[in-house]
Amino acid sequence: MLRGTRSAGGSDLSGGLVTLPNFFNLEAAQSPNCMNVVFNPGGSVEKRLGSSTMNTTLLASTAGWGVYDFGAGGDLRWLVVAAGSGIYASSNRGVSFVSIATGNFSVQNYVNFERSKPFLIATMDSLNQVLFWAGSVNTFMLTLAVNSAPTARFAVDFQGFLMLMNTNLNKRRIVYADNNLITTDPWNNSFDLPSSFDDEITGSTILNKRLYVFTKYKLFRISYVGGNPDFAYQDVKDWGAVPRTIKKITLPEVGEVIICLSWDKTVRIFDGSEDQIVSGNIEDAGGMADVSLEDANDNALTAAFAETDTNQQTYKLWLAMGTSSQTTHCFVYDPLNTAFYPFDNQLFHGAVMAESGGTATRRELMGVRRTGQVHLINSGNTDAGTAVRDYYQSPVFFGKTPRVASKSQQISLYFSATSSGNVFFEDRTNFSNTFNPPRVIISFADTAGKLQISKTIDLPITTNTYQFQLSSSASTADPWRLNRVDYELTDLGLGKA
């Protein structure tokens, strides 16, 4: 290295997107703007995979109102999807479907699934009768305890009881019955959660053998105590969760925690005692980023949903951005590097980790588009034939301060040998908001016998600030992966370049 020359960048590129307006505080590992790239905990950044269509015959034109993976015993597993005014099941992960319920709920209302003993339970936002199904081939869902079980939006199986929540009689009510007797029980056991009259239950999950029930404004802990009543409740937090965003994820050195989207458009985690907002880096619009949580449509938060990708150990949150009433983007949270990063062209209506049947079982993330296509996510290099539009922008590099003019010497990029296609390298200087035409087109035609593909670009320019962008050709090429950046510059002194 030349005397007086120093290097910026490095081998840690795992910091994710940071949308804060003050981009001067970004670390070298973080990006002020990106789309459709993954920030790996190992320090690399790469173009994401796409998704592949599974079904040749479309489901109803408004599909994905509910999605669930249901094991019916033995090797038989069903991917269950609510579409139109019916519910459908697939034993081959979405390739083909059979009808298991028709005309049981209103179009454009969500269906929420739960398992209780051998039964699949379906509750509906439209407050239609609760349905159940044992998963037998050529059978249909039946109505649960006609004239006795209430209609409800949500259900959860807990401590030997099936609990129906947010009922037609009271939106804060929980009605429960022995899960061995759900088809015959009179369903006369219940309690109401104490909150304001306009509050309602929005979902639940079980953590460390405790049931946590969310409302719009509160979080309650439900404990089994036996006797009469069977359950006790405790108000533990004064914030609530958006329906269908409540999931669990594992944090390093902490273990399993609850994660969800709250109504103030923040992502929170809760370990059973303490809570924390983890989305601070992506909440604010006004910086360089094209999307942030602030851009999510306030009037379409109920369209949001989430799923934990157990293969990647990430939390994926789909949101309606801008003026859209339906989901358009997905924000991924990786707890290993505490990074968020966004994907676009995410027109899914629901998603679930689904297991294939048979002896060679595996779990894959499945998504259902509202137009009736079932997709295998993290598959292929396009979104069912649509090119993945990726870009990664570096932080803004400068000397000791942006007032110091610097002589850019060169920049070196190190890619995995598995990269393919063409990557376009663009740059801009001195706070320009426009990137120059591609300075270099990086090709990965010759990777044989190489562990890394390195590209050094001479930069004979004098600047106060420097920034680069990587994007790739709209093709079916395998994703590129960037492992290291070395930007070498020499400080010249105070003044404009």
Supply the key terms.
497 residues, 48% strand, six-stranded antiparallel sheet, mainly beta, Methylamine Dehydrogenase, Chain H, Jelly Rolls, 43 strands, five-stranded antiparallel sheet, single chain
Mean pLDDT: 92
How big is the Rg?
25 Å
The total of beta strands comes to 43
**What is the number of independent domains?**
2
CATH architecture of the largest domain: 7 Propeller
At the third CATH level, what is the topology name of the largest domain? Methylamine Dehydrogenase, Chain H
Largest sheet: 6 strands, antiparallel
SSE class: mainly beta
Distance between the termini: 22 Å
The first-level CATH class name of the largest domain: Mainly Beta
What shape does the CA trace take?
elongated
SS element count, helices: 0
Strand content: over 45%
Low-confidence stretches: none
Q: Which range best describes the helical content: under 10%, 10-25%, 25-40%, 40-55%, 55-70% or over 70%?
A: under 10%
| CATH homology-level superfamily of the largest domain | YVTN repeat-like/Quinoprotein amine dehydrogenase
Task: Describe this structure as you would to a colleague.
- With 497 residues, this protein is mainly beta.
- It folds into two domains: 5-48 and 390-494, Jelly Rolls; 51-387, YVTN repeat-like/Quinoprotein amine dehydrogenase (Methylamine Dehydrogenase, Chain H, 7 Propeller).
- Strand 21 and strand 22 form a beta hairpin.
- The strands form eleven sheets. Strands 1, 5, 6, 38, 41 and 43 form a six-stranded antiparallel beta sheet that branches. It has a five-stranded antiparallel beta sheet with strand order 4-37-42-39-40, with no helix packed on it.
- The protein starts with a strand and ends with a strand.
- The model has no long low-confidence stretch (mean pLDDT 92).
